[in-house]
């Protein structure tokens, strides 16, 4: 009798567990079948890229099920991609997706400034749901502080500072050129370059410059337009006026002032002579 009670209790317990498992499985299946897709808002909604640098817009969709994800260009409502297929003749646009992943990434190769704007990640629910992403494509430029021409005396130092403007990420490198050649540190002593990627600056120092150091110096960062400056290294006996660019020398200014005073004085004497004759 005692054995039968234990057996009945075990059978009842097994049946209960089976029913609970079936109920849980049924509930999970129900939730998966009728759950609506939604966007994961942890992704970046605004992306800045430089001209020519590949840009990625990452859209993350949960509970997608059998729905399709499309990328739409907002300004003209042009369908760029559906799923992983590209629906535009512009092959710079591509949809990236890995099976089992929630991410649908729009890849724009070699973006131009005209590609700036809003792009929508759209899910084929009823009604459709979409999430906008803003792309900024900027022209990154280098700038050398100071005038476009630099005049220095022989024996002085050439000190050039280059700043990289409008770049979302620090440049991977900044090269200095003289003419068409990369500056050779081993060619002579006294040349140093200090580059700070985080501040996007690079400083070129050439100590005790000679006339051989004259030339066109170019700062060329990665993914940015280069900047140049012309350096003139002058011998000590050359006129001081040459070291100030286009500014006139004091002697030229005094000569011009004297000439102007002489002409005015002649006109004054002529006027007095005419009035005296009357």
TrEMBL record:
<keyword id="KW-0732">Signal</keyword>
<feature type="domain" description="Ig-like">
    <location>
        <begin position="127"/>
        <end position="230"/>
    </location>
</feature>
<dbReference type="InterPro" id="IPR013783">
    <property type="entry name" value="Ig-like_fold"/>
</dbReference>
<dbReference type="Pfam" id="PF13927">
    <property type="entry name" value="Ig_3"/>
</dbReference>
<dbReference type="GO" id="GO:0050808">
    <property type="term" value="P:synapse organization"/>
</dbReference>
<feature type="domain" description="Ig-like">
    <location>
        <begin position="37"/>
        <end position="124"/>
    </location>
</feature>
<dbReference type="InterPro" id="IPR003599">
    <property type="entry name" value="Ig_sub"/>
</dbReference>
<dbReference type="InterPro" id="IPR003598">
    <property type="entry name" value="Ig_sub2"/>
</dbReference>
<dbReference type="GO" id="GO:0032589">
    <property type="term" value="C:neuron projection membrane"/>
</dbReference>
<dbReference type="InterPro" id="IPR013106">
    <property type="entry name" value="Ig_V-set"/>
</dbReference>
<protein>
    <recommendedName>
        <fullName>Ig-like domain-containing protein</fullName>
    </recommendedName>
</protein>
<dbReference type="InterPro" id="IPR007110">
    <property type="entry name" value="Ig-like_dom"/>
</dbReference>
<dbReference type="Pfam" id="PF07686">
    <property type="entry name" value="V-set"/>
</dbReference>
<feature type="signal peptide">
    <location>
        <begin position="1"/>
        <end position="16"/>
    </location>
</feature>
<dbReference type="InterPro" id="IPR037448">
    <property type="entry name" value="Zig-8"/>
</dbReference>
<dbReference type="InterPro" id="IPR036179">
    <property type="entry name" value="Ig-like_dom_sf"/>
</dbReference>
């Amino acid at each position: 009798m005692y054995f039968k009670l234990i057996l009945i209790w075990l059978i009842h317990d097994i049946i209960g567990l089976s029913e609970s498992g079936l109920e849980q499985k049924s509930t999970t299946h129900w939730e998966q079948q009728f759950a609506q897709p939604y966007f994961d808002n942890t992704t970046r909604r605004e992306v800045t890229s430089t001209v020519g640098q590949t840009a990625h817009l990452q859209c993350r969709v949960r509970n997608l099920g059998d729905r399709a994800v499309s990328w739409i260009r907002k300004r003209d409502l042009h369908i760029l991609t559906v799923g992983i297929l590209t629906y535009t003749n512009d092959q710079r646009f591509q949809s990236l997706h890995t099976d089992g992943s929630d991410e649908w990434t729009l890849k724009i190769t070699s973006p131009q400034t005209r590609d700036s704007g809003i792009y929508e990640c759209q899910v084929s629910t009823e009604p459709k749901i979409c999430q906008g992403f803003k792309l900024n494509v900027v022209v990154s430029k280098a700038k050398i502080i100071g005038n476009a021409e630099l005049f220095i005396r022989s024996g002085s130092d050439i000190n050039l500072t280059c700043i990289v403007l409008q770049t979302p990420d620090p440049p991977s490198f900044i090269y200095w050129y003289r003419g068409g050649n990369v500056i050779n540190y081993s060619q002579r002593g006294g040349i140093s370059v200090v580059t700070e990627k985080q501040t996007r600056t690079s400083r070129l120092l050439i100590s005790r410059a000679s006339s051989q150091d004259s030339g066109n110096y170019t700062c060329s960062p990665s993914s940015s337009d280069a900047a140049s400056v012309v350096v003139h290294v002058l011998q000590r006996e050359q006129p001081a006026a040459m070291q100030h660019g286009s500014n006139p020398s004091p002697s030229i200014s005094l000569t011009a002032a004297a000439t102007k005073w002489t002409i005015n004085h002649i006109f004054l004497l002529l006027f007095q002579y005419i009035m005296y004759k009357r």
